[in-house]
Amino acid sequence: MRKYTIAQFNKDFPDDNACLEYLRNRFYPKKIHCPICDKDTKFHRVTTRKVYECDYCGYQISPTADTIFEHSPTSLKHWFYAIYLMTATRCGISAKQIQRETGVTYKTAWRMFHQIRSLLTDNIVPSTGEFELDETYIGGKSHGTCGRGAD
Length: 151
Known about the structure:
This protein is an alpha+beta fold and 151 residues long. The chain contains five helices and five strands, in the order H-H-E-E-E-E-E-H-H-H. It is 38% helix and 11% strand. The radius of gyration is 23 Å and the shape is elongated. Residues 14-60 form the Transposase zinc-ribbon domain.
């Protein structure tokens, strides 16, 4: 399996439209069923908003609804890039680094960082069984053993 690079990220998500299209395909992989028309219809993109509209009745769906992207003035490309940075780095990343990389304010970067992190920890299920770790540090210095004669 090859590592997902920044070049591949920029090719897959060149702008907000590509990010919105990715979300639409993720949430609605096949045709979208319109609840008003009660049939599978074609939905077209409304260019001024992050929604798709039914060709027959005008019912609108938003792929960003009920996600961390809903009601966010931050561009989807910045969100996707922050998610990429948080998942691609080995040792993690700080909100300050997200600010530097995306060009948003620190307050926005901090909010994005915490919302993404809460999503990453929401579905953690306690596991049972054996685990293998690459590096583990157990113990440390003994406290309270100062002075002469301390063992």
